[in-house]
Write a structure and sequence with these properties.
This protein is of the alpha+beta class and 143 residues long. It has 2 domains: 4-90, GMP Synthetase, Chain A, domain 3, CATH 3.30.300; 104-139, no CATH class. The protein is built from 7 helices and 3 strands, in the order αααββααβαα. It has a 3-stranded mixed sheet with strand order 1-2-3. Strand 1 and strand 2 (50-55) form a beta hairpin. Helix 6 crosses helix 7. The radius of gyration is 19 Å and the shape is elongated.
């Protein structure tokens, strides 16, 4: 049985450099590290071979642009461009996809917010959702 990923890559290959994006996404977390992968993620490869990477904000884009040649060399690509934009969340690879873990303070705050809910199951569900929301806001990631 042929792997689906091989078929998808073959089809994407018909569109030129866009087919290389899957390989870049696979290597991205190892090439840049967990911290960067949480705040920057490949979005596309242009026809000229330049990798376009979305970042969490303009500060990340500015800082990473200074490391662009180094990161491009690690990935084996001709060039890289960073710009603020939506971060991908559906890739199976990369540490940035793990849900943020709430801190003790965030868990206490979530419990305080949900304390007025009488139904125990609903209260626990709301506590968990609020805790995760507070943690994701702190991590400045799109989940």
């Amino acid at each position: 049985m042929e792997r689906l990923s091989e078929t998808v890559r073959a089809e994407l290959g018909r569109f030129g450099t866009a087919g290389d994006l899957a390989a870049v996404v696979d290597r991205w977390p190892d090439a840049v590290g967990e911290g960067i992968a949480r705040n920057a993620w490949p979005s596309r490869i242009a026809r000229d071979g330049i990798l376009h990477v979305h970042t969490a904000d303009s500060v990340w884009a500015f800082e990473l642009s200074h490391r662009g040649p180094e990161i491009a060399a690690r990935l084996g690509i001709s060039g890289i461009r960073f710009a603020p934009g939506p971060l991908a969340v559906d890739s199976p690879s990369g540490p940035r996809l793990a849900a943020a873990e709430p801190s003790e303070r965030e868990l206490r705050e979530a419990a305080g917010i949900a304390a007025v809910i009488a139904d125990e199951n609903l209260r626990k569900t709301v506590e968990k959702a609020v805790g995760l929301s507070l943690a994701s806001g702190r991590d400045r990631r799109l989940l």
